[in-house]
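Help: why these numbers?

___
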Amino acid sequence: MGLVKEWMDVSLQMLTTKHKLKDAFRLLADGEWVELPLVEDGKMIRVVNIKDCLAAIEGGMDWDEPIGLIGSVNFLTINEGFSIKELNHCPLYVVCEETKVLKGVITQKELLSIYQTVVQQHEKSQETNEWYQLCFDTAYEGLAIVDETGIIKLFNETYSRYVGMSKEEAIGRPVEQVIENTRIPIVLTTGIPERNQIHRLQGQEMVVHRMPIWKNGQVVGAVGMLIYEGVSEIQQIMTKKGALEQQKGDSSHQSNKPIARKRMSFEEILGESPAISQTKKIARKAALSKAPVLISGESGVGKEQFARAIHDTGIMRNGRFVSVNCAAIPDNLLESELFGYTEGAFTGAQKGGKQGKFELAHKGTIFLDEIGDMPLSTQAKILRVIQEKEVERIGGMEPIPVDFRIIAATNKNLEQMVRKGEFRKDLYYRLHVLPLHIPPLRERKKDIPLLISGQLSILCETYGITQKTIDKDVMQLFFRYHWPGNIRELLNVLERLFALTSESHVKVSDLPKEFFQTEKIQAYMTNSSPLHERREARQLDQEEEEKTVIEKVLKEVRGNKSEAAKRLGITRATLYNKLSRYQL
């Protein structure tokens, strides 16, 4: 904020002993000054106010008489180098420290100006801090900053997701209580940075930096930075780099070697919202054991993706991942698919028989998708295979030992099915050892931009397009939409936009009509809030959004209402009603 000399008023009126009483009275009566300094040879000797003038008149002093030495000797002086932080009184007279000559004054006017400036700077500082906090929390890298004693002072949301502890809980704690296996205390002791180090966190190998913070020759803290979510991320970068270099070379020579199935990692399951981060944390722990996993969630949330990641990063990763969709196989064929059969077991059985899925999954993982659609008779046999770890082919007499890990998935409420007798209770409890629920997209809309970003690069490569962008108004509608089909629907919508739009920028008018059906969106918003006031507020927001969309589409079609109605997926009559309603 500075010193007094930067703020003092140097235009103050001064009095001398030769000034007439009427002059002093007139200057004070103007109201600009509460009191005036009385100086002699430039040095302040007294202060004069209205009361002093009135007292002089009552004492018999004439108006035209010099004021002489009237006034008070009680006043406060400070020097020009005085800090304004220490101002707590006014008026204050500023004098030169060496000559004692009066230089200026600090009055209520200056104090008010200082206060206003302080408020403005505080507001600006708050805004800057908010931007810093947003950047800190938005950073892809996990960031943790500690003081010289190892106490966490700053902790961002990215790191919070990995350790499963909120920022509020982490800040103020010793770093070793929050980040397992951390070496930050060692960096604080040695002052030596550790860059690009492998750090095992939540059963996952990650790449981190640990850097000391130096000030005046002392280590005053340290920064822990999580650079890559997993080592496989680096491998992906190198794979992409190799693919690009190959394209730059001779693209005409293509390898005829079969491409092995790419392993799935948890980093490839895109999402940074608390809901999906917690799910990934549980899944990482599940991958470290052979215990059965029961994955629940609506259709399209990515249950198989999680199952593959659990297998590919788990202790059974060297075996096969065998997937069975129980809802897609007819009941009369399901058992032969699961358990296999011997030669001649039934009409049409292939020569030599056939291995079942459980045999194929030996030393690996069997994934039973949509297990809620499995017949009760087959459920009983599945239960026996899980308990006995052996399987009998249809038509066979000898049990075949199998060692596998089972992961099941369903979009149904198995507990409710158990109560209704539609699913075996004993099988449910056999599967429900490590439950894993995947949240629907509507509960993790924060992840939509990240999901879109990941899919855009894939689609650009698939369709041979250099780049395609999405308008921010489209993104706003994506955030409004209910997404009943979850991530699968989002990916399908993106591919449809790629296939049907010729321009490199996707606009609102390119979206399918379901995104403009206000009734559906409004119904969701109404059902998702129990409070009438909140519903009304959201309805106003939705109407404003709809108005903006209509305006934008009309602009794009240059006012052609027929074309606008077609793009919006409504009739012309409905469009005219909305135009009248919104006064467009």
Notes: The two ends are 51 Å apart (CA to CA). The CA atoms of residues 196 and 384 lie 49 Å apart.
